[in-house]
Amino acid sequence: MDKIALIKGDITKMHTDAIVNAANSSLLGGGGVDGAIHRAGGKAILEDCIKIRNRQGGCPTGEAVITTAGNLPAKYVIHTVGPVYNGDKKEKELLLANAYRNSLIVAVENSIKTIAFPNISTGVYHFPKQRAAEIAITTVKDFLKNDAHIDQVLFVCFDEENYSLYQTLL
Ligand code: ADP
Hints:
Layout: E1 4-8, E2 18-23, H1 32-41, H2 43-56, E3 64-68, E4 76-81, H3 89-109, E5 114-117, H4 129-145, E6 152-157, H5 160-169
Parallel strand pairs: 1-6, 2-4, 2-5, 5-6
Antiparallel strand pairs: 3-4
Helix pairs in contact: 3-4, 4-5
The structure holds adenosine-5'-diphosphate (ADP).
Enzyme class: hydrolase
Keywords: Hydrolase
InterPro entries: Macro_dom, Macro_dom-like
């Protein structure tokens, strides 16, 4: 099994231990992949998100939290918040890398072996897709170099543009 794999499709269909959600800081759901995950997973995911909100008041950009995956085939959803791409570009790049890295840290803490990522921040948060793909791949590869827990990371691309960018980079 390759440590890194690329798939074109819908992340809600993945049978990995965890799927990652490109959430927003409120953790209350939104559009894009966030909406798709909450729709397909059912209300158990939102209930867990609300518990986390009550405990820590949402999720800061670049951080990650974990919930049940409800009715999804995955066991867990790791919700991370990517940066909105405006203002200081260098800072946004560091925050995007944090979102990938902190999701992997949460995965390891929860004995997750297989994890699927969407293309965080490349939808309504408008991060340039090429740069986002480079950061995603570099951050995941660097993490896997020093980790013995994760068996496989899937990059799940929903749109053709991201898919072909990842194909070239991987
Ligand atoms: P963000 O707010 O982080 O930009 P979006 O959900 O708007 O989040 O977009 C992030 C990426 O998720 C986009 O590249 C979009 O094509 C992709 N996406 C949307 N729906 C799905 C899905 N069901 N599975 C996987 N990726 C998806």
